[in-house]
Amino acid sequence: MKNSPGLLPSALRVFDFSFGQMLWSRRSVFLGLLVGAPVVIAVIVRMVAMTAGLPVINGAGLNGPTVFGLLIWVLFVRFVVPVLGVYYGTSLIADEVDDKTITYLFTRPVPRASILIGKFLAYLACVLLLVLPAVVVVYFLIVPIGGNIGQSFPQLAADLGMLVAGLTTYGALFAFVGAALKRPLIVGLVFAFGWESTVLVVPGYLKRLSVAYYLQALVPHSMPADSSISSLLSLFQETPPIWVSLAGLTAITVLGLWLGGRAVEKREYVLEQ
């Protein structure tokens, strides 16, 4: 009897036909609008800086690198990355169930878990192709305002690596949620913007049960100590060592994909009429 393909070759086959579908789907319109918003904000900031200059807060003037760091913190780390992880990750299997196409995927001679992994790789390629160039555009619009592009470039490289880690981890976690639960989008939103926002400001060990706790240690920017921005972000200053963050994000990613693959293998998906 002919052996079925292995997990990785099967996942690559699923990635091959899923990537094009995902890139040109209606979800990509939402993705484009989401990553385009920081670019529009950067253009506005650049125009304001050219005409009136950046504001002074508590006697300390803002500059391009500081504003760029704030955009990374507030827009990308705390909003864009978790939103994309929830929106895409929970839909990898759930959309197939809603569209009643999951049975066609299961009839293919591949391991069921490879369907989740292949679609996860397609998600990751799709979001990285749009998010990372948007960050680079924001960087070149903002950082030259009172800053030095050459000196700040290592921070940009660190930012890009951090965003890759965040999109990977959130995507893997919510891929499991989407494969295991019937209403995964609601659960994902509650976790990303309810649970994580709460435990990060609560003393104790609960914050270690969030992705944001490990991700924020990889952000290379520090906010100016004399500004009100510093007071706002002081709630999120408790961060683990970088090696602990990398180990934590890796563990969540691997566990999420493994549990998601197990859920796809074991769960009986009942299609609603």
Structure report:
This protein is mainly alpha-helical. Helix content is 72%, strand content 1%. The chain contains eleven helices and two strands; from the N terminus they run ααββααααααααα. It has helices at residues 7-23, 26-51, 64-89, 91-98, 102-106, 112-142, 149-180, 184-199, 211-215, 228-233, 242-266, and strands spanning 56-57, 60-61. α2 runs antiparallel to α3, α3 (64-89) runs parallel beside α7 (149-180) and α7 (149-180) packs parallel to α11. Mean pLDDT is 83; it is low at 223-233.
The proportion of residues forming helix, as a percent range, comes to: over 70%
Q: Please, what is the oligomeric state?
A: single chain
Count of distinct strands: 2
Largest sheet: 2 strands, antiparallel
Q: How are the strands of the biggest sheet laid out side by side? A: 1-2
Instruction: Output the structural class.
Output: mainly alpha
Shape: globular
Tally of helical segments: 11
Summed over residues and divided by their number, the pLDDT gives a mean of 83
As residue ranges, the low-confidence spans are 223-233
Give the topology string: H per helix, E per strand.
HHEEHHHHHHHHH
What is the total domain count? Answer: 1
Cα separation of the termini: 36 Å
Radius of gyration: 20 Å
Percent of residues in beta strands: under 5%
